[in-house]
């Protein structure tokens, strides 16, 4: 094991190296691929979306029989996102632990010594976790849509394999999960703990929207519409109803993700590591 | 080069680093010596920009690390060898670090074989021994071919072969013209590796000088080690000459305030046979204890047996 021959010393002679945004993105992509828990959570996300969707389709056949195509049409075309309540927590957890595990292991110090400005690291983490979640969520959602139509076709209830509104909704499902992963990264930055980050994510997605209407404020019953889970529901809705359009739902989600990312960036800039 | 000026870090009322100033020069191994809790690691984190100073500043090669466009070329750091994601492979850990600066795959392989981790490069780091962690940490620190190297307790927990390896490596890095800055609480190690010593205690710099000057400046005693079968009789006669003694074993004692030559003469006069008569060289240990006597956060009292 002993070597004293060379440190590969090229001081002043070696090729120049520079910190680049693309380099930081590549670095975070290598880390995400190496994170076993992230791979497991993504696999569970795929399973959750497909099983819930296809399971829902099978239940539909059982309950409605072959003739009531008209009623079946609408619920069937939304089954690709039926697994979302579980999938959003799994993907959010990926975002949280992508950074929280670096704090727990201490590798964050190596990361921030190589990139001392820090903010590029967390934006790269958000971008990488978001892109991966979009790919995983969008693909499983599209796959589920096709699988649901195949199952329904077998019983003569199929709507259409390529129902445009459903396809757009499947892509929007991926996009929604990307925003949730970005929010997860920010929570991980601020809380530095996987458990605390996931708890806060659940509070944000499930608890707060139920509490806010109880506030003694004018129109407080409308507020939950602007929370991530509800705005997300508008964003992926196949049939437009409710206060927000599909686009507006998407904009509200983007604002949430942007808000959390800015908060995390402000938080991390001068914090002791 | 590392420059630190009036650097302070306080947590509430507790000043962990207190108005610290020093320079670590290129081509030199600078040792940062102090008891546990003296502020060594905090100072290192401040230099690397991981902690925000309460006052003062630290720069690496002329400016704060944050302002460099190529941080990994400026400084390579090993703070805590165990601080690696346990699930990642050694190779991917280095590849992720290299990617930030567009360092090529070849350099990563070069560093893996340089530290001797070829056979385990694709294994999860979680299963590594401390020695392997240290080697991986060294590979990571040298990845960017940095002109300044910062190492916190690099020989902690290493086996003798590893210690020798690190010692030769540090020498080599300094000889290549790099600034080498390492901390330790082990004096013997510092005595063997460092050219320049900075001693810190309770957040304050106690000494900053070459090893030789620190040794001579902090020489308070001229101890002589004496062993004899007739220790009791010898003890009485040297005490009568005004010396101080400290019993160190059944048949041995340390004599202060009386040169070896004089002890030999007195022993001869009283027909006492000596088994050993050896002036004790001033050790870094002694100088260090002397410097930090009042500065260590937790100290244990020593039992001394003063006869007479």
TrEMBL record, chain A:
<feature type="transmembrane region" description="Helical">
    <location>
        <begin position="82"/>
        <end position="105"/>
    </location>
</feature>
<protein>
    <recommendedName>
        <fullName>ABC transporter permease</fullName>
    </recommendedName>
</protein>
<keyword id="KW-0812">Transmembrane</keyword>
<feature type="transmembrane region" description="Helical">
    <location>
        <begin position="167"/>
        <end position="191"/>
    </location>
</feature>
<keyword id="KW-1133">Transmembrane helix</keyword>
<feature type="transmembrane region" description="Helical">
    <location>
        <begin position="126"/>
        <end position="147"/>
    </location>
</feature>
<keyword id="KW-0472">Membrane</keyword>
<feature type="transmembrane region" description="Helical">
    <location>
        <begin position="198"/>
        <end position="217"/>
    </location>
</feature>
<feature type="transmembrane region" description="Helical">
    <location>
        <begin position="247"/>
        <end position="268"/>
    </location>
</feature>
<feature type="transmembrane region" description="Helical">
    <location>
        <begin position="41"/>
        <end position="62"/>
    </location>
</feature>
UniProtKB/TrEMBL annotation, chain B:
<keyword id="KW-0547">Nucleotide-binding</keyword>
<dbReference type="Pfam" id="PF00005">
    <property type="entry name" value="ABC_tran"/>
</dbReference>
<keyword id="KW-0813">Transport</keyword>
<protein>
    <submittedName>
        <fullName>ATP-binding cassette domain-containing protein</fullName>
    </submittedName>
</protein>
<dbReference type="InterPro" id="IPR003593">
    <property type="entry name" value="AAA+_ATPase"/>
</dbReference>
<dbReference type="GO" id="GO:0016887">
    <property type="term" value="F:ATP hydrolysis activity"/>
</dbReference>
<feature type="domain" description="ABC transporter">
    <location>
        <begin position="2"/>
        <end position="227"/>
    </location>
</feature>
<dbReference type="GO" id="GO:0005524">
    <property type="term" value="F:ATP binding"/>
</dbReference>
<keyword id="KW-0067">ATP-binding</keyword>
<dbReference type="InterPro" id="IPR003439">
    <property type="entry name" value="ABC_transporter-like_ATP-bd"/>
</dbReference>
<comment type="similarity">
    <text>Belongs to the ABC transporter superfamily.</text>
</comment>
<dbReference type="InterPro" id="IPR027417">
    <property type="entry name" value="P-loop_NTPase"/>
</dbReference>
């Amino acid at each position: 094991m002993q070597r004293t021959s060379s440190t590969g010393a090229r001081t002043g002679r070696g090729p120049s190296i520079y910190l680049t945004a693309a380099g930081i993105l590549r670095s975070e992509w290598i880390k995400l691929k190496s994170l076993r828990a992230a791979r497991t959570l993504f696999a569970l996300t795929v399973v959750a979306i497909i099983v819930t969707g296809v399971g829902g389709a099978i239940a539909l056949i059982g309950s409605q029989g072959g003739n009531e195509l008209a009623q079946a049409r609408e619920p069937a075309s939304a089954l690709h996102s039926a697994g979302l309540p579980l999938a959003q927590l799994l993907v959010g957890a990926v975002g949280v632990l992508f950074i929280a595990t670096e704090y727990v292991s201490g590798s964050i110090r190596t990361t921030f010594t190589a990139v001392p400005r820090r903010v590029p690291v967390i934006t790269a983490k958000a971008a990488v976790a978001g892109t991966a979640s979009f790919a995983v969520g969008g693909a499983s959602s599209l796959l589920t849509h096709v699988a649901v139509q195949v199952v329904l076709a077998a019983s003569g209830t199929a709507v259409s394999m390529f129902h445009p509104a459903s396809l757009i909704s499947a892509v929007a499902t991926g996009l929604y999960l990307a925003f949730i992963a970005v929010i997860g990264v920010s929570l991980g930055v601020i809380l530095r703990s996987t458990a605390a980050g996931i708890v806060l994510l659940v509070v944000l997605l499930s608890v707060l929207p139920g509490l806010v209407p109880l506030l003694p404020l004018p129109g407080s019953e409308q507020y939950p519409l602007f929370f991530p889970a509800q705005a997300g529901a508008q964003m992926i809705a196949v049939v437009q109803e409710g206060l927000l359009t599909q686009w507006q739902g998407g904009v509200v989600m983007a604002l949430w993700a942007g808000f959390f990312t800015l908060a995390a960036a402000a938080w991390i800039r001068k914090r002791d590591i | 080069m590392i420059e630190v000026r009036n650097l302070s870090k306080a947590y509430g009322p507790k000043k962990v680093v207190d108005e610290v100033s020093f320079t670590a020069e290129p081509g030199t191994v600078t040792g940062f010596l102090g008891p546990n809790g003296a502020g060594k690691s905090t100072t290192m984190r401040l230099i690397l920009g991981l902690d925000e100073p309460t006052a003062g500043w630290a720069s690496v090669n002329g400016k704060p690390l944050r302002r460099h466009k190529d941080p990994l070329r400026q400084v390579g750091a090993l703070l805590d060898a165990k601080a690696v994601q346990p699930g990642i492979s050694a190779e991917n850990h280095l590849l992720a670090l290299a990617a930030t600066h567009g360092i090529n795959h070849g350099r990563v392989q070069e560093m893996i074989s340089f530290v001797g981790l070829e056979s385990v490069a694709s294994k999860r780091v979680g299963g590594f021994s401390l020695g392997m962690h240290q080697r991986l940490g060294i590979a990571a620190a040298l990845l960017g071919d940095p002109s300044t190297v910062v190492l916190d307790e690099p020989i902690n927990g290493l086996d003798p072969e590893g210690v020798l390896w690190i010692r030769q490596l540090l020498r080599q890095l300094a000889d290549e013209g790099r600034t080498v800055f390492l901390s330790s609480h082990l004096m013997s190690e510092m005595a063997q590796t460092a050219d320049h010593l900075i001693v810190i205690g309770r957040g304050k710099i106690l000494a900053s000088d070459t090893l030789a000057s620190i040794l001579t400046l902090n020489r308070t005693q001229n101890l002589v080690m004496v062993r004899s079968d007739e220790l009791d009789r010898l003890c009485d006669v040297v005490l009568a000459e005004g010396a101080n003694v400290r019993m160190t074993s059944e048949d041995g004692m340390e004599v202060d305030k009386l040169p070896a030559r004089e002890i030999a003469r007195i022993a001869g006069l009283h027909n006492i046979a000596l088994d050993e008569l050896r002036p004790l060289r001033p050790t870094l240990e002694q100088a260090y204890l002397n410097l930090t006597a009042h500065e260590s956060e937790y100290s244990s009292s020593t039992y001394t047996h003063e006869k007479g």
